[in-house]
Write the C-alpha cells for this entry.
Amino acid sequence: MSKNLVIVESPAKAKTIAKYLGKDFTVKSSFGHIRDLPKKGMSVDIANNFTPAYEVTPDKKKTVAELRAAAKTAEMVWLASDEDREGEAIAWHLSEVLKLKPTNTKRIVFHEITKPAIEAAVKNPRALDVALVNAQQARRVLDRIVGYELSPVLWKKVRTGLSAGRVQSVAVRLIVERERDIETFTPEVTFKVTALFTLQDGTELKAQATTVYKNEASAKTFLEALATSECQIADVAKTPGTRSPSAPFTTSTLQQEASRKLGFSPKQTMMLAQRLYEEGKITYMRTDSVNLSTIAVAAMAELVEKTYGKDYVQARKFKTKAAGAQEAHEAIRPTNATELEAGADAQQKKLYKLIWQRAVASQMTPAKIEKTTITIAASKTKDTLEAKGEVVQFPGFLKVYGDSAKKEEGLLPEVASGDPLTLTTAEAEQAYSRAPARYTEASLVRKLEELGIGRPSTYAPTISTVQDRGYVEKADVVGGERQVIRLKITDGAIDRTQAVEPIPDDKGKMVPTDIGKVVTDFLIEHFRTVIDYDFTKDVEQEFDDIADGKVAWQDMLSKFYGPFHKTVDGAADISRAEAMQSRPLGTDPKSGRPVSARFGRYGAMVQMGDAEDEEKPKFASIPSGMNIDTITLEQALELFKLPRVLGVTDDGQNIEANIGRFGPYIKIGSGYVSLGKEDPYRVTLETAQELIKADTEKRAKMTIQEFPDAGIKVLNGRFGPYITDGKKNAKIPKDTEPAKLTLEDCKKLLEAAPARGARKRRTRK
C-alpha cells in the first residue's frame, strides 16, 4: 500500500487526480456520501439538541470497508472532496466513519483538477472546517424536520404520498402564483402602425409610429392624415454606443444560458459540467462567484492578443453581487484557455464551448456600436414615425462568438434631414398585451436566485423534485385563436379587415398541476411562514452565518422549531374539506343542487350535491385540459353526463363511454378500450364497436398461446415474446420457439424468473 491515501467522492475525479500524483499516492473514491440520515423516520433527536442519527448507507458498506482497510495501512490520509459545504460534510463523515486521527489526516481543496492546482493543494493542507460542516448539518436537519413533520399533515388532510419541503414548496408557490396571474390577466388592446416609404432613389424605408394608439378610431385618424400628408425626414440621430461582455458563468447563469442556447435542463447542465470538471477541463461548477484568478485572467488576455490582436484585449475583474457568495473561489472557466474544444461527447463539447466563449469574452474589449434613429414627419399630423437600426463598427468581444457577431442589424439607408419621402403603404394592426410569462426551468432558476432562495447546488434537484412529485409539469400550453382588426391604406382609402390570428403556443413551460395548486393553497393558509419568500431567504443567510462561525447550528434550529412545531400541532383541527378548498361553480338548473370543483382522492373532480343531502352526491373527474381554478358550471354539467351508455353487447354487457385519468375510453364489462381522439360525449355505438373490434384483433395478434386453466399466456410484447401469469413475466430463450412451448415449459420459466421489481436497475454510465 502507498504511503499516502487520497479520498475523493467521484471515480472519474480519482482517475484524473491519480495522473498528477506520484507512485507514493493511491487515490480512491467514496462514491459520494458514505453516511446520511436513514430514508425512513425522522432520525433526528430533537430533545437531545437536534442530534442526527446518521448511518452508513447500505450501498456504501463495501466501499467503507475497503476505505477503512486502505486507511489503516497508509501513513497519511488526504481528504480531497469538493471545496463547498457538501464536500466538507463528505470529508467530515469520512473522518468520523473511518475513525481517522488528526495526526495523520489532512484536508486539501482545489477549484480545478490540474497538475499545478493539485500540487499546490498538497503543499497547503488544512484542517476540517467544522463551521462549514455545521452549516451543511443545519440545512440537512432543518429540511428533514420540515419534510417529516409537514408531509404527514398533507397525507391526512389532502392525499397520501404527498411531500413538502422548505425550498421545493416555495418553488411550486412561484409557479402557482404565476399561473393564476395568467388566468386572471385581461389583455390591453392597442393598435400599432407600421409604414413603408420610398426615397427619391427608390430605396425603401420601413418605420413605426412612435405613438401606440389606444383604440381603432385614433389609429384610423392617424392613417387618414398620413394618407394625405407630405412626408419627409425630420431628423437623423446617430449615437455611438458600446456593448460590454457579461461576467463569466456562475452555476445559475450557466444553467440559464445552457437552457436558452442549447436547450439543456438545469439537471442535464450540471451532469455535463460535473463530467467536464472531473476530467480537469473546467473549474468547479457549483459557485456563485464571478471572480477569476490573476493567472487565469493573464492566460486569457494572452490568448486573445495572440488570436485577435492587442486591440481586443481588456483584462477585467467582476464583482460578485450575490450575498454570501462563498461556495467557491472562482467563476466557471476552462482550466486551460488554449484548449478550444473539450468533452467526451457532443453535449459536453457544446457546454464546454459555451463556458470557454463566456470566460474568454469577459477579458475582451466592448463592442463599438453606432445606433441610428431616423424620425419621419407627416404634414397633417403631429405624430411621428421612427426607423431604427445599428451598425457594429468594432466587434470587440463579439468576435469570439463568430456568426453571432454580425456587423449590421437593421441597416438603414443614408438620408439627411429634409429628404422627401413617398408613402407606399401603411397599416394599423390590433395588438394584445402579453400576460406574465410562465416560468421555464431557466427563468425559475433566475427567480430563485433573485429571491435568495436555495443555493447553486440546490437549483437543479429542486426543479427535478417538484416535477417528480407531480406538483409541476413541463408542458406545452395551446395558445388558441383571437380576432384581429387590421386597417390598411389602399389607394388613399382605409380598408378594414378582420382576421383570426393564432395565439402562439407556450412550449416547454412550467405549469402547476391541480394537486400542486391545492397543496400550495393549503400551505399558504396554514403554514405561511414555511413557504414565505423572506423566511426562506433569511434561513439561507443563517446558514451562511453558521458557516462563518457566527451562530451555533443547534441554536438556529431551536429558534425555528418551537413556532413551527406548534403550527403543526394546530393542524390537527383542520378539516379535510377545509384543506381541499372546494370551489363553488353554481347550481344545476335541473335538480337545484350545488355544483363545485375540488381535489379528491383520485385527482381533480366536480361534485353535484352535498354529503348531508338525502340523495348521494354525484362525482365526475376533471379531464386533462381543464383545471379546478378555471372550469365553468357549463363544463362541469357536461362531465356529469358521463358515463354514457352507447348500447349493449350480445351477452348483455353495457358499452359505456367515459373519461378517466388517462383520457377517454370505452368500458365493456370489466374491459377497457381507449377512445383515442374520439369525443366521449358524441361518439356513436358504431364507432365504439369498430374500436372494440380493432382492439380485439390487436390483442389476438399479441397472443401466441394461452393456457386458460393455469392462467398463463405466451404473448408478443414490445421487446419480443414472453410468458406471463399476470403476476410474473418470464423471458423466452432465443433458441426456443414460443408457439411450441408446453404448459410445463412455461411453468419452469416463470418459476426461474425474478419477481417483479427484483431486477437490478441499470447504472447510467
